[in-house]
Amino acid sequence: ATPATGCTLKWYESDKKTLCNNGTGSAPNPPYDATQTKDMVYTYYVSQVDANGCESEMEKVSVTVSSAPMPTVSPLNFCEDVAYTNPLTATINTAGGTDATSNYELVWYGTDNPNELNTASEKAALEKTAAPVPSTSLVDTTNVRETITYYVAQRNLSTKAVSRAAELKVTVYAYPRLKTHDPAAICEPNSINLNDTSIWLVSSNVDQFTTAYYDKDRTIPMPDYYVKASGTYYVQAYFEVPTPCPTTEKACKGKFEVINVDVHYIRNLTIDGTPTTCPNTPVVLTAKTTGTNMKA
User: How much is the average pLDDT of 251-279?
Assistant: First the structure.
């Protein structure tokens, strides 16, 4: 419970007279008995007192202590659109009880939260027949990350008691999205810096990443991002997915984006003409070469 500004809470037992926690009025701690065979419901009442000592009316608070402990779950992290077909997992929890692991089964609810429901029948209606396979897609690709919560409880096969559902959070990280444009043509022996951010820019909100550059084969990153030859090159942005990440590939890689480089050159220059002539006699010389975008 949350008190109003300037007020403090005052907790009572179910008789509305006895203050909780040995008369201190502080928040109660409902007891748990590992041998209980059914859910236990405890009733408390709470009021608030202002600075003048005036006390409000009481509000009823019901607390249900399940006879089945919650299963143990661990969060998972994925890169956007990574291929993953394994169902989610959870671990049966027998802490505080005497039943063996084999006396429990997991109960999956998908993304529906059974903890918000009041009756067993409402919760049972949300049960799934199997553990779900998590989605690695983003609802909004402009988001840096999105977290989806899946719910799983465990059922005692003897008592049929179902625990409160544990929250298994799955976070999907957006891969970096780049946009490129071709740099202006240059002449030999100059080079083009592919790492120049005027050639590419980030079109998403991802701001922590590394870039790698490739030639036309797109197999091994180039050791140097300065290029001196015309051709088609590629840039790819990536970052490491935070642990725990269950996939073999931990790098969250964007798509290959094209950068076209145009380097002009002049080579094999030769001059043809009459080797000898008389004074004051014009000679016609012809220059020959190979290259790109040459003008006379």
Answer: 87
